[in-house]
Amino acid sequence: MSKPYLSPMEAAPLHEIRALQSYRLSRTVRRVYENVPFYRKKFDELGIKPDDIKSVDDLPKLPFTYKQDLRDNYPYGLFAAPMDEVVRIHASSGTTGKQTVVGYTQNDLDMWAECAGRALTAAGGDSSDFVHVSYGYGLFTGGLGLHDGAGRIGASVIPASTGNTRRQLQIFKDFHSTILCCTPSYALFLGEARRDAGIPLSEISLKAGVFGAEPWTDEMRRKIEELLGIRAYDIYGLSEITGPGVAYECSEQTGMHINEDFFIAEIIDPETGEVLPEGEKGELVFTTITKEALPLIRYRTRDITMLTREPCSCGRSFVKMKKVMGRSDDMLIIRGINVFPSQVEAVLLELGMQPHYMLVVDRVNNLDTLEIQVEMDEGMQIDAVRMIEQKENQIAKAVESTLNITAKIRLVSPKTIERSEGKAKRVIDKRSL
Ligand code: DLL
Q1: Terminal C-alpha separation, the chain
Q2: Ligand 1 touching residue 100 (CB < 6 A)
Q3: What is the pLDDT of residues 353-366, one digit of tens each?
Q4: I need a surface site. Which of 321, 325, 363, 421 has the fewest CB within 10 A?
Q5: How many whole angstroms separate alpha carbon 304 and alpha carbon 148?
Q6: Ligand 1: does its nearest atom lie under 6 Å from the Cβ of 234?
Q7: Which residue, 68, 74, 92, 71, is CA-closest to 337?
Q8: Are strands 256-258 and 320-321 parallel, antiparallel or unpaired?
């Protein structure tokens, strides 16, 4: 019999959540003021002292933090704990060459495992489950995040990682995987591979899936549920805040409960920065309130969504965020990997190419594809097919080693990529999301 919640806090009354948030917020503000020169300087400039922040209502007085701030303080400049207390490092894509680096103390890792454990519990998981983790392991937070969440609920974790579809299907059958964790597009791919391999649903024991790291639709949910014979739940997170488990879906499947005892969520107008009322669509902003290694104040996620406090039939009282509806910047998520066009541009410039390029993203057989069209320079001495191929391979290798993604490179004739008078158009996304 599965437990309804992992922690009683998930169903606490709003006034209790608010009181806890206020207490933890004021401690966090003090922590960053005392330990992070970047925040001390910012607060001093605005005339804010830690004592001014006493409750959640004071939040709008605080400045925003941006991805660029992490980059400017690369790699560890925003850390608020001494390095000998930091026990784990992860990273995700930055807007150009450098990664966004994040760190965790043991307490931070425990909190993160609690978050991911709550997500698995909400999907019906408990210690009797076999949690099959097919997110990537490594600097990406997906693999180890769900891995530790499974450990938190005492389940048997199967660290399958990504790739090798036939082996994944074999493991489903032989190891009796009951909960699958991976990106929704990979889940769909695995579902179709199961069907095409003629493996009947009766031969696998999967009952649920915890899918996130990229946007997906309810239509895709229905397809995955049908192809794998499961219920599919959304999970949201970002490395800067903690990784997967910042928010998670429950049996109602109408949005993701945000772990409000660890994070305060706001929705703002991305243009003006003004806080919007509940139910309005805007950019999601998080303040971490227990993190020790990398606490972040009003971090701009760039994800567009809305919040709702309508009572949920699962009994949880944590606010819910709707599915992510888009981004307020140009970040793309391709096969679960975050890609900024500016990263591609940096690679091209480093190879001596012109910054005239176009990213064409598509979805073929449920897997994302990326083609990068790059304009040849008029002065370029390329006249043989072999030389074109060589150049394309060179770019593909550089893109792969910098962005961690395979792309098809296509060199195109000079001046064939449309010039823009306003903001350059760098992306054609043919996926219907
Ligand atoms: O994608 C963490 C994660 C791993 C979440 C596994 C869920 C499952 P990053 O690589 O830092 O972290 O990318 C964060 O991915 O700002 C969103 O734009 C997007 N994203 C994450 N989860 C979802 C989701 C991980 N459920 C960025 N729906 C975020 C839509 C998502 N977008």
Answers
A1: 36
A2: no
A3: 988 999 999 998 88
A4: 421
A5: 28
A6: yes
A7: 92
A8: antiparallel
Round the CA-based radius of gyration of the chain to a whole number and report it.
Answer: 23
Report how far ligand 1's centroid is from the alpha carbon of 184 (Å): 11
Token couple for 298: 């009003």
Task: DSSP for 290-320, please give it.
Answer: S-SSS--SSEEEEEEE-EE----TT---S-E
Ligand 1 pocket check for 338: Cβ under 6 Å: yes
> For residues 267 and 282, what is the distance between their CA atoms, to the nearest angstrom?
5
- Whether the CB of 321 sits within 6 Å of ligand 1: no
Tally DSSP H helices, then E strands, for the chain.
10, 21
Q: Between vectors from CA 140 to CA 137 and to CA 143, what angle results, nearest 5°?
A: 35
120's CB contacts (< 8 A; 6+ apart) are 129, 131, 146, 149, 150, 153, 155, 179, 210
Tell me the CA–centroid distance for residue 180 and ligand 1, in Å: 17
The pLDDT of residue 4: 81
pLDDT of res. 98 = 79
- Judged on CB neighbours under 10 Å (0-12, 13-18, 19+), 345 is middle
| Helix H or strand E segment including 386 | helix 385-403
Residue with tokens 């290694």: 293
Pocket of ligand 1 contains residue 238 by CB under 6 Å:
yes
CA of 373 to the centre of ligand 1 (A): 27
283 lines ligand 1 (CB under 6 A): no
Give DSSP secondary structure letters for 67-94: HHHHHHTTTTTT--S-GGGEEEEEEE--
Q: Is the pTM of this model over 0.85?
A: yes
Q: What is the pLDDT of residue 3?
A: 61
Q: How far apart are CA 52 and CA 193, in angstroms?
A: 57
- Residues in the chain predicted with pLDDT less than 50, given as ranges, are 1-2
As a whole number, the mean pLDDT across the chain is 94
- Which pLDDT does position 1 carry in this prediction? 39
C-alpha of residue 243 to centroid of ligand 1, in Å: 8
pLDDT on residue 366: 82
What is the pLDDT at residue 97? 66
CB distance 290 to 260 below 8 Å: no
